[in-house]
Design goal:
This protein is an alpha/beta fold and 232 residues long. It has six helices and 13 strands. The chain has a domain of 103 residues: Formyl transferase, N-terminal domain (Rossmann fold, 3-Layer(aba) Sandwich), CATH 3.40.50.170. The structure holds glycinamide ribonucleotide. Glycinamide ribonucleotide binds next to helix 1, strand 5 and helix 6.
Length: 232
């Protein structure tokens, strides 16, 4: 492939409220040459989010926008998403963004905004997912990358990473074990989106143009597996 014909990297904006380890996973994969993306903006609702420091250290443009800067929740979301749009991303990734987003601002981003959530959705939307999985006696826990819609943690799931729940697991231990899988999952899904292979058609997730009967699953070698056990 000549330089001229090489596809451009996928322009991504990341929203993160805290630690930013999922953001770091994207940064590291991009730097390692394993992910054809350009991180055009990292935005946060927490002005002191560690994610912003990680972005600055990587030379990525940042936006710290406190909800206190706007008179209403809707006004805040409108301002935030206007600033994101100004960075002209092709995809928005919510990576530990801990706010509910006004559905109105999501409309233009339908099919171009994904979230990583620490449960096997539709199980345990919202908070305290690890504790809820343990309390329910689940043998299997995991994380989901899904398209973001107006319904909180309710948009079509693209892929799961699954881990066993061990006897004696605390929510903290389970969360830490899952986090490593989250990083692999997010990279794998973003790679498929960057390759233009995953898309949202109505409410259905499509892989190479065909609706998926069930979410992809992360395999041990970091590949995503389609239902029926074929590699994506
Ligand atoms: C991750 O576990 C992510 O799945 C979760 O927050 C953590 C952020 O970690 N997201 C949610 O709970 C969203 N509902 P990170 O800041 O180190 O990437």
């Amino acid at each position: 492939m000549t330089l001229a014909s090489r596809p451009r990297p996928l322009r991504i904006a990341v929203l993160a409220s805290g630690r930013g380890s999922n953001l770091q996973a994207l940064i590291d994969a991009q730097r390692a040459g394993a992910l054809p993306i350009e991180l055009v903006l990292v935005a946060s609702d927490k002005v002191d989010a560690h994610a912003l420091r990680r972005a600055k250290a990587a030379g990525i443009a940042t936006l710290a926008l406190s909800p206190r800067s706007a008179p209403t929740r809707a006004a805040y979301d409108a301002e935030l998403f206007a600033r994101i749009a100004a960075a002209d991303p092709q995809l928005i990734v919510l990576a530990g963004f801990m706010r509910i987003i006004d559905p109105a601002v999501l409309v233009p981003w339908a099919g171009r905004i994904v979230n990583i959530h620490p449960s096997l959705l539709p199980k345990y939307p919202g908070l305290h997912t690890h504790r809820r999985a343990i309390e329910a006696g689940d043998a299997l826990h995991g994380a989901t990358v899904h398209y973001v819609t107006a319904e909180l943690d309710g948009g079509p799931p693209i892929a799961y990473a699954e881990i066993p729940v061990h006897a004696g697991d605390t929510p903290e231990v389970l969360a830490e074990r899952l986090l490593a899988e989250e990083h692999r999952l997010l990279i794998a899904v973003v790679a498929l989106i960057a390759a233009d292979r995953i898309a949202l058609g109505g409410t259905q997730v499509r892989l190479d143009g065909t609706a998926l009967p069930a979410p992809l699953r992360l395999g041990t070698d970091s590949d995503l597996v389609v239902p029926g056990n074929r590699k994506a």
